[in-house]
Amino acid sequence: MPPTDVAERLRAAAFELFAEQGYDATTVDHIAERAGVGRSTFFRVFRAKEDVIFPDHEQVLARIEERFAAASTEHSLLAVTDASRLVLRSFLADADRARERYALTRAVPSLRQREIASMQQYQRAFREFIRSWMDETEGSAALTDLRAELMAAAVVTAHNHVLRHWLRDPGASLDDVEAAFEEAMGEVRARFAAPRAAAAPVTVVVAGASDPDTVAEQVRRALREGGPDQSRRSGLSASP
Fold first, then answer.
1. Could you tell me if 144 and 34 lie in one domain?
2. pTM for the model
3. Percent with pLDDT over 90 in the chain
């Protein structure tokens, strides 16, 4: 039997038992018996009972690192968005199981702590990547570290906000959650994207006119008709 099939049988058995008799009352032996495998088979697939509940975070982290490794500095914010989307889709891949997991983590404090620790792993990966391309010219290294931490926290917060709303709304479609995610990440990017450089000032020189009203009218006409290029055709010259 392929390992993935065994893992899925164990997961299905575990969630059935958790629903029937509770998480704490369910043992590894119970899960293995319900799945029709031995105890040793369980531990070849999972390290502990709680591992049955959560997605394979190590696999998701590996995919995140691959995405970051392929990113250029110019597209670093896009890479962070893509990485956060990978995390989200690891939950969306099985909606029913994700909602069962959500109910368990709300009810069992140790599982809640495990979930928090997993999200901290993602935040750490985001922070390290963000820090690698942030420029220190606008402040000290400590300030740059803080900016990277703030941005990573914002990415995780936005992700969790979208995920929680989806988990609490069984009627929400995958299209709904994807749209909400894009909107949330757009908010993050808008707050942390580097500001665009201000446009260079333009000086307009008017030749052949001294009356203020005539000058003002020629400037207005030049601006309406196309800026500096049109200004030159209208008897005006513009220089940066």
1. no
2. 0.72
3. 60
